[in-house]
Design a protein that fits this description.
Structural class: alpha/beta
CATH class of the largest domain: Alpha Beta
Distance between the termini: 55 Å
CATH architecture of the largest domain: 3-Layer(aba) Sandwich
Order of helices and strands: HHHEHEHEEEEHEHEE
Number of strands: 9
Largest sheet: 7 strands, mixed
Helix content: 40-55%
Oligomer: single chain
Radius of gyration: 19 Å
Strand order of the largest sheet: 3-2-1-6-7-9-8
Strand content: 15-25%
Number of domains: 2
Low-confidence stretches: none
CATH superfamily of the largest domain: Vaccinia Virus protein VP39
């Protein structure tokens, strides 16, 4: 491992580093941190980035979360974010609703959450995909199965974009309708065209919501109510 670090360091200092070098460096450092967590009895995360939320985007959500007492959080798309949010909410006496359309994948995350001793802080909700009202070719969550409750933070990281350009408009609408005053909605992957199209439609339907761009690898938009 030292030789890999040395090679990457030499490329960085010589201005020859490739994206693959940086990705390798990130993976190695992230892996070391997770090993240390495991040795200390803390939750161990599976790899972030790629399909999973990136660490820089997650940091924005956690920074907002830490300012709230006993918050209710909903995430659309279970994953490593579920473990992270549940760990943070355990410290703040909060509750997480984790919405997932794939029951097999949800069971994997549920086992991971249970192994970390966090199950009492998460309610897993199965929301199958159905045809969207926006177009027959678009599928998204069946929000009729979700509880009609206010939330303080909503993280939109699903469904996968393969379900259509506007697939995330449905959970964004649900969040916009249920967010508490002073609450925040975070849309991951906002650099993609599909998410940009969702945001344009949101601006039309909810002109009282302000969209704030946050610096994150795959793009992150924070959505808040405009204060009078």
């Amino acid at each position: 491992m030292k030789s890999i670090f040395r090679k990457i360091r030499e490329r960085l200092f010589n201005g020859l580093a490739r994206q693959s070098d940086l990705d390798t460096l990130y993976t190695l450092i992230s892996g070391l941190l997770q090993i240390q967590n495991g040795m200390e009895g803390k939750p161990v995360l599976r790899p972030l980035r790629g399909w999973a939320i990136s660490p820089d985007a997650m940091a924005w959500v956690l920074a907002d979360l830490q300012e709230r007492a006993m918050p209710t959080v909903i995430e659309f798309g279970s994953g490593q974010s579920t473990v992270i949010l549940a760990s943070a909410l355990k410290l703040r006496n909060g509750k997480l609703l984790s919405v997932e359309h794939d029951p097999e994948y949800s069971s994997i995350i549920q086992r991971q959450v249970a192994a970390c001793g966090l199950s009492e802080h998460v309610e897993f909700l199965h929301s199958p995909l159905c045809n969207s009202r926006d177009a027959a070719s678009i599928r998204s969550y069946d929000t009729s199965v979700l509880p009609d409750i206010p939330v303080d933070i909503a993280l939109i990281d699903g469904p996968p974009y393969t379900n259509g350009t506007l697939t995330r408009l449905t959970p964004i609408r649900w969040a916009a309708h249920h967010i508490n005053r002073g609450g925040a909605i975070f849309l991951d992957d906002s650099a993609r065209g599909g998410e940009q199209a969702c945001l344009k439609q949101l601006a039309i339907e909810y002109p009282n919501l302000r969209q704030i761009s946050r610096n994150a690898e795959k793009g992150l938009i924070e959505i808040r109510e405009v204060q009078a």
